[in-house]
């Protein structure tokens, strides 16, 4: 019973960490694209 509870908590934590990780990656990718576009604008 306790093991089951612990496992579900662990799964939830892993899921939250994973979604946070995905969000961070997505945000940094967006910032890179934005930065790149600004650089191109400066060049032209």
Describe the fold and architecture.
The protein has 44 residues and is mostly helical. The protein has one domain. Helix content is 95%, strand content 0%. The protein has one helix and no strands. The model has no long low-confidence stretch (mean pLDDT 87).
Taking the sheet with the most strands, its summary is:
none
**Average pLDDT metric:** 87
Termini distance? 65 Å
Low-confidence stretches: none
Index terms:
44 residues, mainly alpha, single chain, 1 helix
Outline:
The chain is mostly helical and 44 residues long.
Q: Can you lay out the helices and strands and say which pair or pack?
A:
Blueprint: H1 2-43
């Amino acid at each position: 019973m306790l093991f089951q509870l612990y496992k579900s908590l662990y799964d939830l934590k892993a899921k939250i960490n994973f979604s946070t990780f995905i969000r961070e990656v997505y945000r940094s990718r967006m910032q890179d694209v934005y930065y790149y576009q600004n650089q191109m604008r400066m060049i032209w």
